[in-house]
Amino acid sequence: MPIIKSAKKRVRTANKAATRNSKTKRNLKEALKVFGKAPSAKLHSSAQSQLDIAVKKGVLHKNKAARLKKRAAAKAKAAGVKPAKAAVKKAVPVKKAAGKKAAPAKKSAAKKTPAKKPAAKKK
To answer: Which of 47, 18, 42, 13 is nearest to 30 (CA)?
Structure first.
């Protein structure tokens, strides 16, 4: 057991991270196993989502996730599963105020140095 206060904190932090990482790994393995047993569009998207989450959290390398996604896609294709349609977010147009024109970009003004004050005379 560490004696130094910062080392104690590192132990606590490491334990929290280990718990979080193991939970992410467990969810990923479960999603891949369920998809492997009965491939469907919903399970395929779930497995891909778990892979993305694992990469985002740093639990899995991005190339390994890409490889696993490719294998899952091949398995889905072999099973005749159509990919689920992803919900595409539409870009919301920016509304401009009626009658107002866009202001041109302002030029940056050069900094002016303040005038030097005359030095006080010593008596």
So the answer is: 47
Per-residue pLDDT reduced to its tens digit, 37-64:
999 999 999 999 999 999 999 999 999 9
pLDDT at 81: 82
Query: pTM of this prediction?
Result: 0.62
Q: What pLDDT sits at residue 103?
A: 64
Tokens (6 digits) for 74: 């091949």
For 12, 13, 98, 102, the CA distances from 1, given in Å and listed in that order, are: 11, 14, 68, 64
**Spatial CA neighbour of 30 closest among 14, 8, 53:** 53
Domains of the chain by start residue, with CATH: 5-78 (1.20.58.110)
